[in-house]
């Protein structure tokens, strides 16, 4: 018996990185998964490999959300869960951030999450689950990622309000707050076929060995296991909460 047997779950940004690992794990645990992304070739290939449904979804577009939910209902009959994983990161000081860049991050990270909750919850079966992907930077500051941090802080607010408003339908809403995870977002070498992504990963491990108490960068599979916990009955009495998964980074700084 899988932990998600028979459940229908939409995972956004599922063509690669954390979303891909969430989709793979959820299928392995018995879920019917909707792989949603703008990377059509990769998303379709993944869906075919794991026996899932692929839908094109630009999370910043409300019409795309309605089409994705309609496709899920047409194929599987209902929707039981959502993992709002899609997101983008831009590096810039606040005073050097152009408004267009700031709003691009807001549209994908914050508006995308809002539209996911709004659209999917309206069609979701009672007793469903929503997992929003926030960030370590949702609960602390970090220089050079002001737009990103602002949207991730906003996601925690959305999560808490949604948890309160949807509790009467037994829909639980929680947030994950990953620290540094070895995906294309933190390791762009994974996007370059000519680059040695594993060498870059080792270099990142060297950096995070100094910053993270557990001494390494996180793995997307580890975030996927947290998403599984929050989507399954293992977390049946938990809602409205942020879950930090950062190797102890947020705990503080060691001076010895």
UniProtKB/TrEMBL annotation:
Picking any one GO molecular function of the record gives: oxidoreductase activity
Q: Which Pfam families match?
A: adh_short_C2
**Keywords from the UniProt entry:** Oxidoreductase
Q: Which InterPro entries match?
A: NAD(P)-bd_dom_sf (IPR036291), Sc_DH/Rdtase_CS (IPR020904), SDR_fam (IPR002347)
Please state which protein family the record places this protein in.
Answer: Belongs to the short-chain dehydrogenases/reductases (SDR) family.
PANTHER family (UniProt xref): 3-OXOACYL-(ACYL-CARRIER-PROTEIN) REDUCTASE (AFU_ORTHOLOGUE AFUA_6G11210), SHORT-CHAIN DEHYDROGENASE_REDUCTASE FAMILY PROTEIN
Q: Which NCBIfam families match?
A: PRK07231.1
Name recorded for this polypeptide: Short-chain dehydrogenase
